[in-house]
Amino acid sequence: MNQDQRRRYLIEELLWERPSCRRQEIPTDADRQKVLLRSLMNVRHPAAIGKRYLEVQDDYLQEELAAKKITRLSDLHPIQEAIYLWRGDITTLECGAIVNAANSGMTGCYQPCHNCIDNCIHTYAGVQLRLKCAEMMAEQGYEEPTGQAKITPAYNLPCDYVIHTVGPIVRGELTREHCALLKSCYRSCLKLADENGVGSIAFCCISTGVFMFPNEKAAEIAVDTVQKYKAETGSKIEVVFNVFKERDEEIYRKLLH
């Protein structure tokens, strides 16, 4: 199969899973097909799927990844000892673990093609990630508390693991509790990474954006927590502060210089 054939196969299989969509016409152009495939992956609830589907999906996602520019940790230059600042797409970063800003359900974003990090990570990891998260949550028996973290394989992403954490949502005035919970997110991720022998971790801007934590304060907490954790524990873990917006890059660069 070439990429066009793989994409059509995946779309057909996902449409067949949804009886109401079986007669849906598949677009002829590649870009619209990509939107449809991602949408179907996003709305699909966690469930097992056939081995053939997974083989084709993994081949498809790996070839899509190969077409992107992969950034390796070794390509980056530290801004402080074992601390890096990088602006780019976290799903293209080859490192030990990337951090996903998850919701309390922990199974990803179900809004088709939403541009949040949770949606992107689940899309490019493949449907296995949502199922793995659902299995963990079923075993746990309750929603994930804010400030804690869980680790999963990364499947089709270039990193080895995904560490999922639920950040605080700020509605109204920022409180001490919000700040303490965000600090807990960073410490929980670092501790979990060290416990699992992960040598490097890339943090997104947890709780900013739709979770409405002020960007400047969130960055201050992130940098301070990482620096204190490394000093207190002697951890040798390499840390990447990953940003997507130029404004966030400016904030972090000022804090780290």
Question: If you had to describe this structure to a student in words, what would you say it looks like?
Answer:
- 46% of the residues lie in helices and 14% in strands.
- With 257 residues, the chain is an alpha/beta fold.
- It has a six-stranded mixed sheet with strand order 2-8-7-4-6-5, with helices on both faces. The protein has a two-stranded parallel sheet with strand order 1-3.
- A hairpin with a 7-residue loop joins strand 5 and strand 6.
- The longest helix is centred in the C-terminal third of the chain and has 20 residues.
Strand order of the largest sheet: 2-8-7-4-6-5
Q: What percentage of amino acids are in beta strands?
A: 5-15%
Helices and strands: which structural class?
alpha/beta
| Beta-strand segment tally | 8
* String of helices and strands: HHHEEEEHHEEHEHEH
How many DSSP H or I helices?
A: 8
Low-pLDDT runs: none
Proportion in helices: 40-55%
Instruction: Using the CA coordinates, give the radius of gyration.
Output: 19 Å
Shape: globular
For the sheet with most strands, the description reads: 6 strands, mixed
Distance between the termini: 50 Å
**Mean of residue pLDDT values:** 96
